[in-house]
Design brief:
It contains five helices and five strands, in the order αααββββαβα. It is α+β, with helices and mostly antiparallel strands. Helix 1 packs parallel to helix 5.
């Protein structure tokens, strides 16, 4: 069984290769006009999780690291049409937030609270249990 780290690494590799070519408008170099070829698609992982020395953990906590923050953040604004009995229009999502889990993994209380907060701010969120599931969510969001 793959670890959460291995699954997330596959997702990032896919984004930096396939999606960077498929959606060049979301390639970091295009927007920053970098002289260096960073080669990054507009998705990132905050430095949460993992085992650290107590002093490092204390330092990161003071710097603002928070328990339960989602694994992947894609700050790409998207519009989705919606239709109700009374209205037609567009929903604006400021970005996509993904919590990665290994198969049969479960979200913590803090992770569910962060996901609920991001949803309340208009973000699309997902909990994904495989690299392919996360890739499908990202591709669906970008269409």
């Amino acid at each position: 069984m793959k670890s959460e780290h291995q699954i997330q690494t596959e997702v990032i590799q896919y984004c930096d290769t396939v999606l960077a070519r498929k959606y060049p408008q979301y390639h970091i170099n295009k927007h920053l006009k970098c002289q260096y070829n960073m080669g990054h698609f507009a998705i990132y992982a905050p430095p949460n999780g993992g085992k650290r020395a107590r002093i490092t953990g204390s330092t990161l906590k003071k710097e603002g690291q928070r328990r339960g923050v989602p694994d992947l953040i894609m700050p790409i604004q998207q519009y989705a049409p919606f239709v109700t009995e009374q209205f037609r229009g567009l929903t604006i999502f400021p970005g996509l937030i993904i919590e990665m889990k290994k198969p049969k993994g479960r979200t913590s209380k803090e992770q569910r609270e962060w996901l609920a907060f991001f949803e309340s701010q208009g973000y699309q969120t997902a909990v994904c249990f495989s690299a392919q599931e996360a890739i499908d969510v990202i591709e669906g969001y970008l269409k």
